[in-house]
Description:
Blueprint: E1 2-6, E2 15-20, E3 25-32, E4 39-43, E5 49-55, E6 63-68, E7 71-78, E8 87-92, E9 97-103, E10 108-113, E11 116-122, E12 131-136, H1 143-163
Antiparallel strand pairs: 1-2, 1-12, 2-3, 3-4, 4-5, 5-6, 6-7, 7-8, 8-9, 9-10, 10-11, 11-12
InterPro entries: LOR, LOR_sf, Tubby-like_C
Family: Belongs to the LOR family.
Protein name: LURP-one-related family protein
Amino acid sequence: MRFLVRDRILGIGDDYWIEDEQGNKVFLVDGKAMRLRDTFELKDTHGRILIDIHQKMFALRDTMVIERAGEVLAKIRRKRLSLLRNHYRVTLVDGTELDVSGKILDREFAVEYDGELLAVISRRWLSVVETYGVDVVREDADPALLIAVAVCVIHLAEKERDED
């Protein structure tokens, strides 16, 4: 399953549709402006909130939190001891860890679980400017969660770049 994400998605206060390969609207990313912390909601086509994404307050290092139905689903932060700047760890509530690595700012990276590829994020397949694809490789993977992970790591990487 491949989804097309507009790169401007990370603008706080902006709303953008994520489409499937056929151009059908699948998810709406609702950027919440005027909040104390960076906040996004991933909604279905009926406006129901599937995923809530926000920056964790008072964390020693930047952390994004993904929630579903008010319950924490995952926390994302840059990998602590990584020599690679573009390496993030996603810790799911059950203790499972996903690894995100690659060229985050270039929109060329992968999400893996225990060495198994779950999703590939890339601009290579697309001719649409300012768009990247999220290709969910495993059929049993949660597309909304993987899209939320992509949004989070890109947001964290851009924020870190802007602080340098």
